Amino acid sequence: MKLMYLIILIAAIFCSCELVTTSEEDKQNITIAAGGGEGSKIMEIAAQKYMYENPEVSVEIIDITDLGNDRMEFYLQHLESEDPEYDIYMIDVIWPGELQHHLVDLYMFGADKYVDCHFSAIIENNTKNGKLVAMPWHTSAGLLYYRSDMLDKYGYDGPPETWDELEEMAAVIMDGERDEGNEDFWGYVWQGNAYEGLTCNALEWTASNCGGSFVSPDGEITINNQQAIDIVEQAAGWVGTISPSGVVGHAEEDARATFQGGNAAFMRNWPYAYSLARSADSPIRDDFDVAPLPAGDSGSGAATLGGWQLGLSEYSANKELAADVLFFMAGYEMQKMLGVESSLMPTIKDLYADDDVLEANSFFKNLYDVFTNAVARPSTVTSDQYNETSERVFAGIHDVLTGSQTGASAFRDMEADLEDLLGFPTGSPKCD
Ligand code: GLC
Questions:
Q1: Alpha-carbon gap, residue 93 to 245, rounded angstroms
Q2: What pLDDT was estimated at residue 12?
Q3: Fold category of 2-133+305-372 in CATH
Q4: Separation of 21 CA from ligand 1 center, angstroms?
Q5: In CATH terms, are 2-133+305-372 and 159-302+378-422 the same topology?
Q6: Nearest CA to ligand 1 atom 6
Q7: What percent of the chain is predicted at pLDDT more than 70?
Q8: Whose CA is nearest to atom 11 of ligand 1?
Q9: Residue 271 beta carbon below 6 angstroms from any ligand 1 atom
Q10: Confidence of residue 17 (pLDDT cuts 50, 70, 90)
Q11: Does the structure show a pLDDT above 60 at 154?
């Protein structure tokens, strides 16, 4: 199947050079603000395919910075100044509330034909006051990557089921590998930089430990509780022991570089890293697997819900055409391509029963429950204040990780900050 998409891409590029009669200046342009690793590659293939089928259109994809918070700042600069430069924006699953006033209602352009085939929870997430702010493009959830060869070598039956087990296994494997001469080997790599990715990691720690999700879906600030403090302090203990000291400056690609380079026993990352770590030039291509993240006191692991959507700018000069491009990009054929060519996860339910997709990514099926039970960040309840909420959360938690504040004081401050920001009451997290 991969070969088929390569042929489509080459044919599209070749034909767009040879056969197209529309001159460059007569073409209608649609520009997409997107980018970021695997997403760029996939979107480029989809754009080539669209242009092949619609030679009078030119679709340009602009790579915006990888770090979510910087990307949001960039988007807001353009949207708040009503800039028509970008027609389509690739937006994070947490942003529909924040960007709703700058993006058109996709139902006005025929989205009702498509919505039913997508996961309903994501459609609901992207719907604000009855308006479909963005079309789901791919979904995601945090996973534990582990070195299966190392587990065998050190006599473990399977991946760790609790954070305590992870800690212990990571230390044993790391010490063993270092004793054999690999001084660069680490036990566990993850995302500890002060940015959105840390909010995702921290949510997995707290939710798995009965410590809640910072702000509950019904609007209570639950962040300041002992279960959350304990697990974040436990994570602070990993820094400089089983995890490099530099983990407090790491994002997804830093973790992947270490793990894929063969220098870590465990990694927390999103599904996109799977196909990259399996690629022909990856030294660990046959030596790793994925599992649910470990559990704390709740008895089960938690995976943060991630993923990206496509929204249509209110300020686009060519909304009809941009909507057509957008629906094509998020449609069945292109989502199938995404599920075969990469390990980004489709949002179209039927693709999880598609043989080609499952052949490329068998873990979609094995870990289906992890993906469908993923924990949402509190972006619906905080709506256009989500970004600020998350900034306070990751800054406070980063302070605990770097040791510049104790857990108790950081969590007390975060609670007070969130009360000021949101005006919500405080409460205790629920844990089943
Ligand atoms: C991934 C997720 C996204 C999340 C980001 C954090 O891109 O899909 O939802 O916000 O990582 O770094």
A1: 30
A2: 53
A3: D-Maltodextrin-Binding Protein; domain 2 (3.40.190)
A4: 41
A5: yes
A6: 197
A7: 95
A8: 197
A9: no
A10: very low
A11: yes
Q: Is the CB of 396 under 6 A from ligand 1?
A: no
Helix (H, G, I), strand (E, B) or coil at 48: helix
**Ligand 1 contacts CB of residue 306 (under 6 A):** yes
Domain residue ranges in the chain: 2-133+305-372, 159-302+378-422
For residue 37 and ligand 1, the question of a CB distance below 6 A is answered with: no
Q: How confident is the model at residue 178 (pLDDT cuts 50, 70, 90)?
A: very high
Domain 159-302+378-422: CATH superfamily, name plus number = Periplasmic binding protein-like II (3.40.190.10)
Q: What's the pTM value of the predicted model, to 2 decimals?
A: 0.94
**CB 273 within 8 Å of CB 267:** yes
Ligand 1 centroid–CA 68 distance in Å is 7
Nearest protein CA to atom 12 of ligand 1, as residue: 197
> How far apart are the C-alpha atoms of 365 and 70, rounded to whole Å?
34
The response to whether residue 220 sits with its C-beta less than 6 Å from ligand 1 reads: no
Residue of 379, 309, 380 lying closest to 347 (CA atoms): 309
User: Which residue, by CA, sits nearest to atom 3 of ligand 1?
Assistant: 306
Q: Is 137 in the pocket of ligand 1 (CB under 6 A)?
A: no
Q: How far apart are CA 99 and CA 76, in angstroms?
A: 8
Distance 52 CA to ligand 1 centre (A): 31
Indicate whether 369 pLDDT > 60.
yes
How does pLDDT run across 51-62, given as a tens digit for each residue? 999 999 999 999
- Cα gap 160→61, rounded to integer Å: 41
CB atoms within 10 A of CB 254: 19
Distance 371 CA to ligand 1 centre (A): 14
DSSP H helices, 89-192, are: 96-99, 120-125, 148-153, 163-179
Q: Which of 378, 58, 30, 388 is nearest to 223 (CA)?
A: 378
Mean pLDDT, range 133-161, rounded to an integer:
98
> What is the average per-residue pLDDT within 218-230?
98
